[in-house]
Amino acid sequence: MTPISYFLVLSALLFAIGVLGVLIRRNVIVMLMSIELMLNAVNLAFIALGRQVGSIDGQVIVFFVITVAAAEAAVGLGIVIAVFRNRATVNADELNLLRW
Amino acid sequence: MSLGLFFFLAVLAALSALGVIAQRNPVHCLLALAVNLLDIGVMFVGLGAVTVGFLQIIIYVGAIMVLFLFVIWLLNLQAEGFSGYLGLKLFGAIGAAALAAEFATLFLHTSRISTPGASALTQGTITTLGRHLFSDYLVAFEITSLLLLAAVVGAIGLARRPPLSAGLSAAAGSDLATAESPRQMSRSMSVSAEQQTTTPRAGSA
Asked: Which of A94, B72, B149, B186 has the most CB atoms within 10 Å of its CB?
């Protein structure tokens, strides 16, 4: 039987890798993928802790998180397409129209 | 879940997550992300959350990955070099390492404070999950449908082309400013149509 803390450490590692991906990558689509990585890490922590406590609420919350992630991906990719149509780039460093 | 299976899945998850942020081609990043999501889904099933694990595989790997792939191919993204500010990347690496270390030390102490739960309610079958969804979480479940509707409308509104009627009305307004231009335009169009119909005959003759 695997201890609960192993899952939590793996979740922390995956979350940090997602944060690193958002910070070092400049492609907006890859940044969205890194956000999905972070959401998954949090889902893993929810499932592991829910099993530890013996409650099903963690799984229900993961269900909602998956739904929100689907909506976020759809809207985010729509924004990427709209930006690409106007600026012809997906590089986050070149999208500096609001910078003063 | 046995310890050996956990370590296999954990190493695979970490490697694929590193592949997401280290590959240069976005399609390769997406493939690594699909491996990672499948891996986490298997881990969910191993933890007893059977329904959520299969939902993860169906929704993430089946739907969201295809959406990402479609957008990558629609925008025709090629492999790219690592550009941008090096200082920000260094700061990001240090910050992410500090975050991982902090979370790990925090989570390594949770086994002492959390009660070893009774493993009675750990199998997340469709029955138990649905019973909770439609009793305790009914309001959140209904609001989720509203969220999905808003996401559909918002995604279509963002990603569609600017409406064609606005461009047509602008063109009509400019035509009305110069009074006789519609007639001229129709005349020139008919002339060009005649030319187009006559030139292939001349060419064939």
From this structure: B72
